[in-house]
Amino acid sequence: MLNVAIVGAGPAGFYTAEALMRRVGIAVDMIDALPTPYGLIRAGVAPDHQSIKAVDRRYHAVLAGGVRFVGDVCVGEAVTLEELMGLYDAVVLATGAPHDRKLGIAGEDLPGVLGSGAFVSWYNGHPEFADLAVPLAHPGVAVIGNGNVAIDCARILAKTPAELAHSDIAAHARTALAGSVVREVHIVGRRGPYQASFTPKETGELGHLERAQPRVDPADLPDASGDAALEPGLRKVVASLRAFAAAPPAGKPVSIAFDFFSRPGGIERAGEALRLTVERTRLEGDRAVGTGVMRTIECGLIVAAIGYYSAPLGDVPFDAERGRFRNEGGRVADRLYVTGWARRGPSGTIGTNRPDGIEVAERIVAEAVPGGRAGAAGLDTLLHDRGVRPVTFAGWQAIDAAERAAATHPSPREKFARRDALRRAAHG
Ligand code: NAP
Q1: Domains in the chain: ranges and CATH
Q2: With bands split at pLDDT 50, 70 and 90, how would you rate the model's confidence at 73?
């Protein structure tokens, strides 16, 4: 028997486990610091995008098919990576990119300035972020970044309670957003529409919100003659942006303004609120250069949606600049592998992790040899001796059932956002 441990039970881990379980003679344990599996499907994907979350059925089948879930066990605390290497024939790091990139400007540590990872984790009920202070008592919000996460954040801030009714947004966020006075959400991009990282569906969706209207300054749009040469996805994004620019005011109370060519320069307090200074940029090739023209955006909340980096682990070689583990085709060292965002950096959709997972699984099958290591039984003994009680697949199913039972129709689940509540539900 080849014993494999996967650290991280998110999409990247599941695609690796799925590929491994199809082989005979491989036992797989998925270890996660949270009592719940599915990683970004639960804590990252927007709560109003339930169709994307439906992929969890596929991951459920992996657990139902015999891959073990060992939840509520933090590698680096409850058990070290070295210990895992001693217990398993191969270890795969599928730990994602949980940390927010920093803006590197003055004032970014002020209260009210959040990274998108923190903000998204808050509204998605991640237990480490249940008490995050999210100021929603000022009409202005600036979301910095021109990627899909920025759009997710802006959309969640702009939606009505009715528009969130079908979501599984955490109860504390549902309540806070219902009392929000936010009326002007700025999506701040340092470059222009042709350089945006949005995808068509996410951009187009902003044109169909109940109380919010997207706004684009027509002067920020490049000459339309260049659209034909764009990659098809970006062409559709730009078409949506042109439609937003051309749309007459619809009398909606909330605006989502695309502030292109605006480079954040600094943040300062302005009474109870924050003042974000941005410098107008122009493009030199694809690069933004400052023009010296400054303006300010008054807001109560600033969300920096500018990307993520992985958490280093022990002595594992880490590329701090790119925020990911050093690897060659998914191999870090003898018997140690990496997959997903921890391997490539934080880009791509959930499905992008599948080929990654398959490739790493194939490498393991080709390279790893059973070494008579203790595997699952050894890990269970070690955790038991340390008084650590993992959440098993059955425990997760108990959480899942309890959350579904606690939901108010039409929401699919009422997430338990506290670790003790999750543990109670798991252990009975
Ligand atoms: P992203 O797509 O890489 O976008 C990051 C944005 O931040 C870019 O516009 C970048 O601008 C900007 N940025 C970086 N540093 C900055 C700085 N110092 N100041 C101002 N702007 C800065 O990342 P993301 O939005 O975090 O998304 C991560 C991945 O998840 C992406 O692949 C995304 O498509 C995916 N995702 C998908 C969905 C979905 O399919 N529904 C939802 C959410 C996320 P520059 O281009 O100028 O560097």
Answers
A1: 2-98+310-427 (3.40.50.720), 100-304 (3.50.50.60)
A2: very high
